[in-house]
């Protein structure tokens, strides 16, 4: 099926135009970087807020082919006319713009506005009115790929929820762990966005690792609960502690939960091998190898490893993602591929850039 679609597109030469708003930020910049290598999606316009009117080359010097594009405003009128619009804006800025875009435009939101299905959870964690939920852009979740095929509105997951969901969903779906999970995840500073913040100054971050959002207060907690409860088919509790580490990009999530009665290392390995056998962007590493953020740098890939801590009776799963690639920009294009009927892997990097 995929091969037939691919050869049809190659023969017709069809391409789609993409407008990226938030293109001067980290997530939008990553979408632009990946578009440069996509055979059927072409970057047709870049948009942002305070930097409208400036050359993209001044703000994103690595995007060499696009240096002369002039940044346009982010309002809906400026974004009309593209086949695909990627919104990479701060939380709360996407919904009003998206509501004014044509229904047949593929709109991919990298922000949180449309991720949560429960309006009460949205109000509690984000503090304003829920804009409604869109199909959730994690095709690897059971049943999700079908919802994304042909969709015209897609909510890209948060970066921590991507790593944690892919780390734990197979064990929960197979009933191998108790539905009470503990997650400690390390993130590079690009996860916090590009706008200046004192705690992200080099002198604060370099040479130090710090925890933040401790005690169940990080807004990715409800997103993880939503995903993991969907995978398990029962409510799952999540204790999540993020940490900031002195690197630019990458997330390493260490997840654990008590083993269910009868579960062991063999059944856990078998469940993960089965769940991810056909997933192009999820790599269960050979036994004994542990994920690193460098091995997925710039790749639309999650690297996973599992172990059983016999003495503690717990399953441990470690996942590495690049927060800007599989954690946002790559996921956005993976979803766009599905929405447009392209092979899901089209134009996306499967390998990292580690030395
Ligand atoms: N960074 C990451 O690892 C991840 C980010 N995301 C999500 O992607 C989105 C963007 O994040 P990120 O790139 O890190 O953020 P940045 O701060 O790096 O970039 C924000 C972008 O949004 C624009 N912008 C700011 N305010 C407004 C506004 N009021 N109206 C329209 N545009 C505005 C900025 O334009 P200008 O510079 O012109 O002001 C800039 O282009 C967020 O929703 C974030 O949660 C999701 C997963 C991972
Ligand atoms: C290091 C750091 O600050 N990370 C961000 C994660 C942001 C992200 O990627 O997720 P959203 O798309 O939901 O914003 C944080 O903890 O809020």
Automatic annotation (TrEMBL):
Range of residues in the leader sequence: none
The keyword Cytoplasm belongs to this UniProt entry's keyword annotation: yes
Domain Semialdehyde dehydrogenase NAD-binding: 17-149
Record pathway: Amino-acid biosynthesis; L-arginine biosynthesis; N(2)-acetyl-L-ornithine from L-glutamate: step 3/4
GO biological process, one term: L-arginine biosynthetic process
Compartments where found: Cytoplasm
Keyword Oxidoreductase attributed: yes
Reactions the enzyme catalyzes: N-acetyl-L-glutamate 5-semialdehyde + phosphate + NADP(+) = N-acetyl-L-glutamyl 5-phosphate + NADPH + H(+)
Cellular component annotations (GO), alphabetically ordered: cytoplasm
SMART domains assigned: Semialdhyde_dh
Primary localisation category: cytoplasm
PROSITE patterns for this protein: ARGC (PS01224)
Active site positions: 159
Recorded GO MF terms: N-acetyl-gamma-glutamyl-phosphate reductase activity; NAD binding; NADP+ binding
EC number: 1.2.1.38
Protein family (similarity comment): Belongs to the NAGSA dehydrogenase family. Type 1 subfamily.
Name of the protein in question: N-acetyl-gamma-glutamyl-phosphate reductase
């Amino acid at each position: 099926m995929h091969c037939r679609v691919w050869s049809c597109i190659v023969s017709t030469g069809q391409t789609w135009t993409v407008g990226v708003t938030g293109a001067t930020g980290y997530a939008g910049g990553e979408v632009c970087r990946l578009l440069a290598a996509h055979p059927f999606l072409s970057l047709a316009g870049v948009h942002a807020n305070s930097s409208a009117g400036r050359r993209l080359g001044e703000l994103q010097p690595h995007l060499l082919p696009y240096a002369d594009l002039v940044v346009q405003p982010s309002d809906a009128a400026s974004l009309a006319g593209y086949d695909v619009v990627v919104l990479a804006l701060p939380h709360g800025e996407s919904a009003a713009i998206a509501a004014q875009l044509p229904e047949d435009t593929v709109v991919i939101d990298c922000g949180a506005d449309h991720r949560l299905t429960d309006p009460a959870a949205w109000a509690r964690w984000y503090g304003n009115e829920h804009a409604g939920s869109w199909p959730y852009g994690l095709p690897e979740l059971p049943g999700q790929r079908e919802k994304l095929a042909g969709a015209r509105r897609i909510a890209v997951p948060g970066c921590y929820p991507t790593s944690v969901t892919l780390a734990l969903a197979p064990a929960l779906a197979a009933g191998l762990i108790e539905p009470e999970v503990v997650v400690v995840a390390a993130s590079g500073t690009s996860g916090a966005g590009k706008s200046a913040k004192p705690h992200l100054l080099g002198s604060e971050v370099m040479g130090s690792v710090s925890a933040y959002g401790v005690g169940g207060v990080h807004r990715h907690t409800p997103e993880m609960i939503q995903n993991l409860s969907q995978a398990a088919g029962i409510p799952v509790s999540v204790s999540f502690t993020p940490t900031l580490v002195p690197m630019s990009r990458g997330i390493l999530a260490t997840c654990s939960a008590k083993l269910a009665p009868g579960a062991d290392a063999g059944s856990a390995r078998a469940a993960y091998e089965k769940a991810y056998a056909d997933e192009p962007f999820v790599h269960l590493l050979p036994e004994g190898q542990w994920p690193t953020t460098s091995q997925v740098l710039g790749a639309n890939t999650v690297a996973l490893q599992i172990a059983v801590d016999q003495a503690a009776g717990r399953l441990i799963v470690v996942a590495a993602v690049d927060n800007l690639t599989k954690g946002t920009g790559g996921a956005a294009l993976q979803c766009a591929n599905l929405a447009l009927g392209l092979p899901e892997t089209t134009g996306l990097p499967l390998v990292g850039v580690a030395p």
